[in-house]
Amino acid sequence: MSKVFTIAEGLENLGALRTGGQGSVYKGKRTGTIYSAVKLIPTPIHTESGDDKNYRNFQNEVAKLQKVNEIPNPNIVKILSWGVTESGSFPYIEMEYIDGPDLNELLAPPHEKIFSLKELLKVADQLACALAHCHKVGVKHGDIKSNNVKYNIHTGNYVLLDFGLAIMSEEQRRSSIRHAGAVEFMAPEQHEGKMLLQTDIYSYGVIVYELLTGEVPFPLTGEGDSGRNAVMLGHMEAEVPDAIRARKLNLPEDWPEAKMRQEMQVPAWLINLINKCLQKKPEDRFADGPELHDAIVTGSLSATAGTVGTGIAGVSKANIDVLKTENKRLQQQILELQTALSAETIEYEASQMPDNESKITVSKLGFNALVALLVLFIGFSVYAAFYKKDARLPKTITQDSLKTPTDTPAQTPVEQQTDLPANDAYERKRIRDSIKHVTDSIRQAVIDSTTNAERDKVQVDTPQP
């Protein structure tokens, strides 16, 4: 058996994990200074046995907290141990120490009064992830506020701390809230000592509202009970102030104008989410952490896909108003440009027209129609002229015409017609030939006038009077 040696002072060797030609890997145990955070519960436990009701409740709630750490979550503080203090017999829970500022410190100088949208969405997502993890195992935090969420400077994550209120009884919670609770973050039902899954949702909404606007919806303005009562009344009855207006008022004055415009493009889905979290009735909020986190994921995806928000998922109302204004401005510019071009065109055509003449434009279809009417008119005139000539020719007297009406039987109307002289057939043929010649000549003229495919219209010049 090989000898187990000490690697260095404070670093214990627990045995080899694997060996190879380039070296060996050992399992070590750090025995140096380790920092932790210890939460003391203000209710003493008389005996550490099942006969003590407070001790039983404490054990039950600690068992729930241990479930939270069965599956590690980067946004939840680790529970290291729990027990009862040797002096005073106070129950305690030992938690991982998170090195870094809390949200309350990040909102105070020298930091900006509000969070950037990018960092705000990061906090909203990670804190909702922590609540979803807790609620899945049945743990209600009960004390979510700005100084219970810390930024871990080593990992870059936001971590939910202090599960002390989660292991208190309802009576202990009511007493703690009445005297020392952060009333600005409390849901309306908490003032009656109730703690629901939706209670954590309400406090979450207060935090996100605070990061967005730089202040909580109902700030505490006095130190006494009157100030606390006014805040409680606000949570129970008053309408939540407009978050967009509050953010605009608290924009840092030293920000460039472009950054101010960018930071005011708040996604509509985020405003809707905050409003739902801050509903007075618990049943009107998100049911629990998983439903809250799903809403954030859905909202983020819709914004990435280009759907808004107030009608286009992820696009704010300010974005839509700007686009509408710009669209109207562009349409007005196009209309003015079209009007100017039309005026210039009319002026140019007028300048190109000779002073002593004007032109009448006739379409090809209209010209062909006029020619056709002219052909019909000429043909009719020629026919009428020859017909009148035939009517004036002398009638031929035959022997049958000398007969009296009584000498011949009644004749039909056709037989009563006057016979033409023998040269009538020749005259008729000549008339037809003349009409045909005129018609053919006009038809050829029409064909010649329409065979030119490059001319779409015919201009007929008329002298000015």
From TrEMBL:
InterPro entries linked to this entry: Kinase-like_dom_sf, Prot_kinase_dom
Compositional bias of kind Polar residues: 400-420
Protein kinase domain span: 11-296
Keyword field: ATP-binding, Coiled coil, Kinase, Membrane, Nucleotide-binding, Serine/threonine-protein kinase, Transferase, Transmembrane, Transmembrane helix
Coiled-coil residue spans: 320-347
CDD domains assigned: STKc_PknB_like
Gene3D superfamilies according to UniProt: Transferase(Phosphotransferase) domain 1
Start and end residues of each stretch annotated as Disordered: 400-426
An annotated Gene Ontology molecular function: protein serine/threonine kinase activity
Classification via SUPFAM superfamilies: Protein kinase-like (PK-like)
Spans through the membrane: 365-386
The protein's name in its UniProt record: Serine/threonine protein kinase
